Amino acid sequence: MTTIESKKVIMKFMGVEPQFSDGKYHWTDSPFFYIREPSLDATVNGIAKYVKYDTSWDWLMAVVEKLCYNFDGQQFYQAEEKLNDALLSVKIEKVYEACVNWILEINKDKQNELNI
């Protein structure tokens, strides 16, 4: 999975979505960044290039917090354990990867529930 693809996984989990108005998609969640594109894909790709989940603890810890407080951890025990191990390593790359993997597990579990 590319960095852009993994950022999109986190963006969707965190509820980062462009808005549509005046015939264009736009995102204005950051006071320092404004993107306005005619297509949803171009806007999402632009946002994915901007977000810093993979390089900033400030961005990534918001993801960790949402993961830890929105789930009881029982059904995702193995993913939660990997996140704990990654946090103890104090390496942002490992924490980022653990977050992406946990979100993918959550998405897979949700998909399985829909197929029942």
Notable traits:
116 residues; mainly alpha; 5 helices; 64% helix
Structural overview:
The mean pLDDT is 82. The chain has a domain at 53-116. The chain starts with a helix and ends with a helix. It contains five helices and three strands; from the N terminus they run H-E-E-E-H-H-H-H. The chain is mostly helical and 116 residues long. The chain has helices spanning 3-14, 40-50, 57-70, 77-89, 92-115; strands spanning 19-21, 24-27, 35-37. The chain has a three-stranded antiparallel sheet with strand order 1-2-3, with helices on one face.
Helix content: 55-70%
Please tally the β strands and state the result.
3
Mean pLDDT: 82
- Number of DSSP helical runs: 5
The 3D shape can be described as globular
* CA-atom Rg in angstroms: 15 Å
Strand proportion, as a percent range, falls in 5-15%
Kindly report the oligomeric state of this protein. single chain
Largest sheet: 3 strands, antiparallel
Uncertain segments are: none
Give the helices and strands, then pairings:
Elements (H helix, E strand, L loop, with lengths): L2 H12 L4 E3 L2 E4 L7 E3 L2 H11 L6 H14 L6 H13 L2 H24 L1
Antiparallel strand pairs: 1-2, 2-3
Helix pairs in contact: 1-2, 1-5, 3-5, 4-5
Describe this structure in a few short sentences.
The protein is built from five helices and three strands. With 116 residues, the chain is mainly α. The protein is globular.
